[in-house]
Structures are given as C-alpha cells and as structure tokens.
Specification:
Blueprint (H helix, E strand, L loop, with lengths): L2 E7 L4 E7 L5 E5 L6 H6 L4 E6 L5 H4 L2 H8 L3 E3 L10 H4 L18 E2 L5 E4 L2 E7 L8 E5 L2 E5 L2 E2 L2 E2 L9 H10 L9 E4 L5 E2 H7 L4
Parallel strand pairs: 3-4, 4-5, 5-6, 10-13
Antiparallel strand pairs: 1-2, 2-3, 7-8, 8-9, 9-10, 11-12, 13-14
Length: about 210
C-alpha cells in the first residue's frame, strides 16, 4: 500500500506530493515547492529516497535545498532543464521578485527520460516526457495515479508563454500521451484539485 499526501505550498499554491510506504517510514517527494515548512515537519521521521521534479520552475523547486539537506536524498530532473536549478532567470524566480527573490539549488543527481521506469518505494513509476509548459516537463505514472506537474489541470492546462513553452508541444503531450491513458487514471496536478483523464477528455475546454 502506498499513501499519497498533498501539501499546498508557497504564494502560488503549488502542490507538493509525498508518497510513503505502508508504514510511512520511507517516502519520495514530488515537487517540493516554496515555503516547505509543513512538508519538512511531516517528513522529519521519514527516510526520503528521492525528490522527483516534474519541471524546474521556481514554485516547484523552492523547497529542494531544504528537503535535500534534511534528508540527504538525490534529485531527479529532465536534462533539458538541468541548468534551470542554478539559474534564477531560467527557472523564473527573477521574473517575480515580489514572490521571494532569486531561487537556486544544486544540480540534479539523476536525469529523467521518456519511458524510464523508476523503482522507488518498492513500486515502479513510469516517466513520460510531456513538454509544452516547459521543455523538460515530465509526468509520473504509478498504476492509475498520474502526477502531471503543470501540463494538465482540472479544466485547464499549463501556460505556454514562459521560457521554452509551446502550445503545440503541450497539446501533443496531452493528446499523444496523457489522453492515451485509461479514463480512470487519477491526475494529481501541480496546482488545484485532482481530476481524472476521462473527465478532462470530456470537459477540458483547452484541449
């Protein structure tokens, strides 16, 4: 049994996800956002195996350093955004200084790629490269749970007007990969409430 907990962090209300094993002694963190105090308290007595990043925008990476230093765990990120972790200009934190100023962290230890299978927590997560919101955006699928980052939201999609964004790529990612999944797959987005693939196929006005 895997437990999924959501932490809504920072000024942009970014969803960070904590997946833990049945006895909640080991876990992985997806997108530790800004102001991660609540997440840090929760994982104080949990061994964190990895930090998985759906992409490297500042609101999704703001808590990476704090979690990494507290838990001594590696970071996984798509190589197209490898240098975004060290560049406030590329990760966007310089564009909105009123939200907290420049954000940087050390480079990721591991790359992510299309079709990759991550074996963590005794489970397998499949990696989908889903560019459009950003060039290195990825989504993680475990059984019928999809962590979509800022690619697909409930009744919305990720913006494409930031560095490396492309609506054509975003539409290709959603229609060519995510909408190929089972309708019952639950989508855990980077912002906002959960949804399902089937619901978005029928109701999302942006795709």
């Amino acid at each position: 049994m895997i437990n999924i907990e959501t932490f809504t962090l920072g000024p942009l209300q970014t969803n960070a996800y904590l997946l833990t094993n049945s006895d909640r002694t080991r876990g992985i963190v997806i997108d530790p956002g800004m102001n991660p105090a609540a997440l840090l308290r929760r994982i104080e007595n949990i061994e964190i195996e990895a930090i998985l990043l759906t992409h490297a925008h500042f609101d999704h990476i703001g808590g990476v350093t704090a979690v990494r230093e507290a838990k001594k765990c590696p970071v996984y990120l798509h190589p197209l955004e490898a240098d975004w972790l060290t560049s406030p200009k590329k990760n966007g934190s310089m564009n909105w200084p009123q939200l907290g100023g420049a954000i940087t962290t050390d480079e990721a230890e591991y790359d992510l790629g299309e079709g990759q299978i991550l074996k963590l927590l005794g489970i397998e997560l499949k990696v989908f490269h889903t560019p459009g919101h950003s060039p290195g955006s990825v989504s993680f699928l475990w059984e019928n749970h999809l962590f979509s980052g800022d690619v697909l939201f409930r009744l919305s999609v990720g913006r494409t007007d930031l560095l490396g964004g492309s609506y054509r790529d975003l539409a290709d990612s959603i229609h060519g990969k995510l909408f190929e999944l089972d309708d019952q797959v639950v989508v855990y987005p980077g912002h906002g409430p959960k949804t399902t693939i089937g619901y978005e196929k029928l109701n999302n006005p942006h795709v």
